[in-house]
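User: I'm preparing a small set of examples for a lab meeting where we compare how different chains pack in three dimensions. I only have the primary sequence for this one, and I'd like the structure in token form so I can line it up with the others. Please keep the answer compact; I'll paste it straight into my notes.
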Amino acid sequence: MNKKLFALAALAVLSGQAMATDVLNHKSPYCGCCSEWTKHMQEAGFNVEEKLHENMNPIKQKLGITPEIASCHTAEIDGYVFEGHIPAQDIKAFLDNPPRNAKGLAVPGMPMGSPGMEYGDKKDSYTVYAFDKDGDVIEFAQH
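Assistant: Understood. Below is the structure token output for the 143-residue chain.
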């Protein structure tokens, strides 16, 4: 009997870990590429809620996004901040093992070929940066 209870408890814990992570994506109501990024995240298994803002600047300032790392949309996941067109696999890797003192990830600007910015076979190389509360950045991934 105890083995069955243990197995059920373990299954419940594992099922909770397998559940999709909730994402709050702050975006302009007029930005199509931000909606495409939302689709990319949903296809990767995330639950995404979009929150529309006429002016994104107060959100970015509140969440510590500096102009150097800014993009169009800003997402919140589990207390972390994700700025711009970051690939879902990089977000998953970050959430699995966040760099020490990291506040989140950012892809500055809107690089062609990044998730949500696909245009045929055109693709720019771009860097995903991890950043901390002081605004310091380090390279996290290269695409």
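A couple of notes for your slides: The first strand starts at residue 22 and ends at 27. Residues 10 and 84 are 36 Å apart (CA to CA).

User: Perfect, thanks.
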